[in-house]
Amino acid sequence: MTDTQVEPPVPHRPHHYDDGTDLGSDPAASSPAPAAPKVQSPFSPNEEDLVAPLTVVLVRHGVTEMTTSRRMSGGGVPGPPLSAPGRVQAAKAADALYSMGRRTWLQLPHVTRVIASPIIRTQETAGSIGRRLGAHVETDDRLREVVFGEWEGLTVPEIVERDGDAIHAWRGAEIAAPGGEAIADVGTRTWGLVRELAATHAAECLAGRDVPRGLALVSHAVAIKSTVGMALGMDPARWGAIWPSPASQSILQVRARQDGSIAETHVLAVGIPVE
């Protein structure tokens, strides 16, 4: 597990767009600014070994009819589409992502890459975000929701009637859902993607563009809480205490070493709701 600190955002320093343009200027009118000073963490064991920060914004999809009826909607099936309120939430999430580094979270880089779960509701949410950012939506299976197996489509009371306390044992990471996944397994696959993205970012930095970058991962409730839990080094039994609401954003700042490994991860925010 990485050495993780829950810290407020790094003190503001003049970051740059991914194309090298200073955040405080008009990118269409200004020439490329000098390289920004490297943003280092006071907690790193070897500051000189770190590349620029990678910001990962975890975005939950908007609501569906399954969300509002409180039925289990997992990653084992394509799933329902966004409802009308869910589409509104997706548009608001897109605006929130566009604002980062422009009107809000000015110390963070712009989000320029969007990766989504293959499930219908996340693809639709990511589509709204991609159109707003002008970014192509990539798909990664590791971002899909936990597979609920035989519990798919059921409410918690229905599961309790059928299997007793099994749902509570599942939530406490003691068992897998019947025919489905355990919560800890979800964290393993989502964190594998974060590690891969950190390694790619480090390689890009070493190739001559050592600048902060931002990307969005559009996913699901259990997948997001599992990713945050992994970032915090929490016991999987406690991940259920993390709750990202529909269309919310959770922000991680990943500090990678030059060799691509993760030195530390800062959790800047969890579950910022859309307004």
TrEMBL record:
<keyword id="KW-0378">Hydrolase</keyword>
<dbReference type="GO" id="GO:0005737">
    <property type="term" value="C:cytoplasm"/>
</dbReference>
<dbReference type="Pfam" id="PF00300">
    <property type="entry name" value="His_Phos_1"/>
</dbReference>
<dbReference type="InterPro" id="IPR029033">
    <property type="entry name" value="His_PPase_superfam"/>
</dbReference>
<feature type="region of interest" description="Disordered">
    <location>
        <begin position="1"/>
        <end position="46"/>
    </location>
</feature>
<dbReference type="InterPro" id="IPR013078">
    <property type="entry name" value="His_Pase_superF_clade-1"/>
</dbReference>
<feature type="compositionally biased region" description="Low complexity">
    <location>
        <begin position="27"/>
        <end position="37"/>
    </location>
</feature>
<protein>
    <submittedName>
        <fullName>Histidine phosphatase family protein</fullName>
        <ecNumber>3.1.3.-</ecNumber>
    </submittedName>
</protein>
<feature type="region of interest" description="Disordered">
    <location>
        <begin position="67"/>
        <end position="86"/>
    </location>
</feature>
<dbReference type="GO" id="GO:0016791">
    <property type="term" value="F:phosphatase activity"/>
</dbReference>
<dbReference type="InterPro" id="IPR050275">
    <property type="entry name" value="PGM_Phosphatase"/>
</dbReference>
